[in-house]
Amino acid sequence: MLVFYGTQCYNSNGKRICAECDLVSCLFARESVFIKGLKSTMKKFRVAVIGCGNISVMHFASIAMTESCELVACCDIKEERARKWAEKYGVVYYTDYNEMFDKEALDAVHLCLPHYIHSKVSIEAMERGINVLCEKPMDVSYEAAELAVKRAEELGVQFGIISQCRYHDSSRFVKERISSGKLGKIISVASSLTWVRHDDYYKSSDWKGTWDKEGGGVIINQAIHTLDLVRWIVDSEAKEISCSMSNRAHPSVEVEDSSEGLITFENGVRYGFWCMNNYGINENIEIRIHCERGEVRLGYNDAYITYSDGTKEEAHNQEEEECCGLGMDYWGIKHVRQIRQYYSALAGCEELEISGREALKTHKMIMDIYDSAGMKSAFLKK
Ligand SMILES: NC(=O)c1ccc[n+]([C@@H]2O[C@H](COP(=O)([O-])OP(=O)(O)OC[C@H]3O[C@@H](n4cnc5c(N)ncnc54)[C@H](O)[C@@H]3O)[C@@H](O)[C@H]2O)c1
């Protein structure tokens, strides 16, 4: 069943022209109507990717699928990685991003870097007037992330943070149904994430598995998507957090591979979560939301709602996009949607949906989870 929900298309002046599209056609229409109208008058945004490791494939592909921007360069301190992507897309590559900033007159950079340099590189780009779209998480501390948000606001640049799971059809459907009031108030939420990261995953990286460079393990790197989805759907900020974490099956790394806890949001909703990186496979996540007038089950690709009167609704991710099949299944296929939204905002056609300020709410919750569990501070005190 294809579920439609209210969102809008835009004409070439950025004005709404319809309110009845489903998200897929809406975002495509928004891009194509916008581009058709403005193609002759608008230059494409000049864009570069910094960090050509695992996730960069989704950024390169999404940029290529977004008509309002063009890749002009890429950068990685590991020259062979930068060269590989530069050759694929026919652009120049650098091993020093400052040299790239000097030479390329960039409008925007995509940061696909280790966590501990996200804010530093973001601010360096912003101070040259370059807009930034940074991979999650914002950084390894709250202070560093907040500083980047403040600098973006002072300098008037667009600062976006990737959280692509909000762009899944299933997530958007649940968000809309709950926001509309149809399900009544949320009573409780629970989520589980049972994934696996083998020792090789950590061994192949010089920053993953460390407190100072990754900033944590399963919470900050994997469960962050689930925690962000819940916080966004509950539409409130965390007030109290009580949680525990441990490293149960990864003796070669410092960080947690398991965590569970209870979060109470400002609006009173209670949320219990459980996550682990030491399961046998990467299973679908499960988010259960109990509401006054029904119950929601949300995974990455599907959402099911059962209303108290017995009626049912469901939504499923559309898989027709070219990004499908790139990267890992559990990354989802929606980078392209968020990246298009970012450039639409950069063109002044709409508000940036996941700004640094918006992402900071989830980042604060993540940092408070670490503070509550005490494992990170105990390690850093040693
Ligand atoms: N949104 C998602 O679903 C998703 C999935 C995977 C990773 N990520 C995020 O993407 C980011 C990168 O993760 P990854 O798995 O691709 O890591 P990675 O280690 O594979 O890639 C990082 C790259 O950055 C390069 N690098 C490091 N310092 C640099 C510098 N100063 N200048 C230029 N390049 C530099 C490294 O050489 C490496 O190639 C992280 O923030 C991670 O959490 C997001």
Structural account:
This protein is α/β, with parallel strands linked by helices. It has a domain at 2-164: NAD(P)-binding Rossmann-like Domain (Rossmann fold, 3-Layer(aba) Sandwich), CATH 3.40.50. It has twelve helices and 16 strands. The chain has helices at 23-38, 56-64, 79-89, 97-104, 118-126, 142-155, 169-179, 199-203, 218-234, 335-346, 356-373, 375-381, and strands at residues 9-10, 16-18, 45-50, 69-75, 92-94, 108-111, 131-134, 159-161, 186-194, 238-246, 258-265, 270-276, 286-291, 294-298, 302-307, 312-316. An eight-stranded mixed β-sheet has the order 10-11-12-9-13-14-15-16, covered by helices on one side. The longest helix has 18 residues, at 356-373. It is globular, with a radius of gyration of 21 Å. Bound molecules: nicotinamide-adenine-dinucleotide (NAD). The site of nicotinamide-adenine-dinucleotide has 24 residues, from loops.
In short, what is this structure?
The protein has 382 residues and is α/β, with parallel strands linked by helices. It has twelve helices and 16 strands. Strand 1 and strand 2 form a beta hairpin.
Structural class by secondary-structure content? alpha/beta
Our estimate of the beta-strand percent is 15-25%
User: What's the name of the CATH homologous superfamily of the domain at 2-164?
Assistant: NAD(P)-binding Rossmann-like Domain
**Rounded mean pLDDT score:** 88
H/E element string? EEHEHEHEHEHEHEHEHHEEEEEEEHHH
Label the CATH architecture of the domain at 2-164.
3-Layer(aba) Sandwich
- Provide a count of the helices: 12
> Which stretches are low in confidence, meaning pLDDT under 50 for 5 or more residues running?
1-40
Helix content: 25-40%
Describe the largest sheet: 8 strands, mixed
Coarse morphology: globular
State the name of the first-level CATH class of the domain at 2-164.
Alpha Beta
CATH topology grouping of the domain at 2-164: Rossmann fold
